[in-house]
Amino acid sequence: AVPGAAMRLAALLAALRPVLPLVLGLSLGCSLSLLRASWSQGGGDEQCPGAPGHPGARGGGARPEAADGLPVPGHEDFRPRIVPYYRDPNKPYKKVLRTRYIQTELGFHERLFVAVLTSKATLNTLAVAVNKTVAHHFPRLLYFTGLRSAKVPHGMVLVAHGDERPIWLMYETMHYIHQHFGSDYDWFYIMQDDTYAQAEQVKALVTHLSINQDVYLGRAEEFIGGDEQARYCHGGFGYLISRSLLLKLHPHLDSCRNEILSVRPDEWLGRCIIDFLGIACVSQLQGQHYHTYELAKNTEPEKEEEEEFQAALAVHPVSDMTMMYQLHKHFSRIQLDRAYQEIEDLQMQIRNLTSLTPAGEGGLTWPVGINAPFLPKSRFEVISWDYFTEQHLFSCPDGSPKCELSGASKADVSEIIESALEQLNNRYQPLLRFSKRQLLNGYRRFDPTRGMEYTLDLLLEAVTQKGHSHVLAKRVSLVRPLSKVEIIPMPYVTEATRVQLVLPLTVQDLDFVANFLDMFAMNTLDTHDNALLTLLFIYHPYDAQRVSQVDVFAGVKAMVGELEKRYAEVKIPWISVKTEVPSQVKLMDIVSKKHPVDTLFFLASVWTEINMEFLNRCRMNTISNWQVFFPVHFQEFNPALVYRGEQTASSSTDFLRDGHFDRHSFAEACFYNSDYMTARTKLAADILDRDEVLESMEVFDVFLHYSGLHLFRAVEPGLVQKYALRSCNPRLSEELYHRCVLSNLEGLASRSHLAMALFEQEQANST
Fold this sequence. Notes:
This protein is of the alpha/beta class.
């Protein structure tokens, strides 16, 4: 019996073995939790350290409660409360106005504002030098002067106070800064036009200072005959003022102007801050030092080797424009060398750490510190290389196989070849010196993960130290990495702008008008979108003569009348035009004259299905006097070729699948009337009275060649068109007609669908 019991016990243990760790874990966890609970509770007579009466109790402890768990009277403020929303029904409802930008609503401020004090005598010299050297490094910079010259230099924002007295200029400048920028910026840097300031160092300084303190930072100087502890910031070396200090100082500016007498404006401002706020100038604060250097006469910046000069944040006095440019060149070279040294240090650290990674040294990419090349997951993601020589490019924007290398592409290739030679000479000199004979082959591609990549096959002549030369071919690889991403400032636009739709119609478009009007009514009129519609009836001369007997657009006008009856507040005007050649530019000329200059046009086609999503993008992507928008619509394929008698796929599952973005069509466009009129005026001056030129142009060509605006052309998934065979007018120019034919051909079906249709046709013919 004993062996049988042992066998049963062994079988039971074998069955419980998989769950044994779970049981042990639960038991151990319960035991530890009970033990921890006993420790935390302790004895019944022991007081917690934070309880009242305990020697270690603090007055700022937890909220006291009575025995029933309710708060002790007098401590209700510690209990969180939910304040319900209540609106007085007797008061009219007032809509809450939101700010333009979220940073305004959240109370965010810009970092740094810079004010440059100049004069009428130095505005066109030193002030211009400041503007050309450091102005573009600061986020916002203004120039303040007493009297302005007749012509303000280009690219400078100037504020003239009308008086050249130094104290008055300082008083008016501080008052102006507080009034216009006091609520927008955290820091205010004030300098003179004979001061050279390292912009990047100033910006780095304010990022390390706390904005919660009253800061008056600069080169501290003693008052003549005054208290040694009271110091002012020397204006020649610039000084930094915090927003909190400016807000406290502003109420006392009038008193300072009337009570404080001084010759120097910086002394006057320092005395005002000390007398009314009790804050003296300091040269270091929160571990940050304001380094300055006083420039002697006839100083050559390239030969200055003092450590104080190399570390200077501001240099004064700068006597002329040439000295300003020399200083800028010198300090720019110092920053550039410092950046290169930091890059080398980082690359060395990356090399040292790479051996510790799972990939080992094999995971080290070239160049060190730059992202690895993009690895395609399928053949459709392979980034192709563009072949080029020194004269020609074999991947042209217009699709032709070969075109001349010119413009930015030519400058790019020349710079890359020069850079390759420079790198080779730096590596092999003084043993070898290379010179270019010829570029044998050139390849380049843009990798969105790292930048532009180049591979060059160079025919070089190598010369040794002894003068012996040898011709050899060498392949080099180069990368132009993506640099720091910058946010380009754009003018403010809103989705509340009214859109004026313009729909040109010919006789061939009559079968599609009903669907267009139905979609327009459903997506704009029913939703009360801020959009209007104007129809443009294009009559053939023959139809125009018979319009009194038979109007080819009578059905469309009847549909428009039905819409106006259904929507009483809506009026849909139409314009009748007689022409054999419906030039897009000529038609737009007629429409433009009948609308205000601030009208936002959307030039549509009859196959367009209007929706609110696209109209909002039309509003946001079109900026007056800045940008026009030419969307690339999605064209569905011919269902007879794609489905071949099968049931059409639902739009929800195959949205944007059975079709393509028609890059040959420029029929849709969003632009402002003022921008069109400006470009059209330049076009008229160019072509004079040769109106036949307009027949070979579209609105896109007008903006491309006769306006300096940004042309934003992008695929638009919200602009979907059903398949329809367009009628191409042979009277148009050869280019426009060819583009229309290509659009029809590429819109038939994809290559796989066309191949399947041919295969089925051959099978049917063979049987």
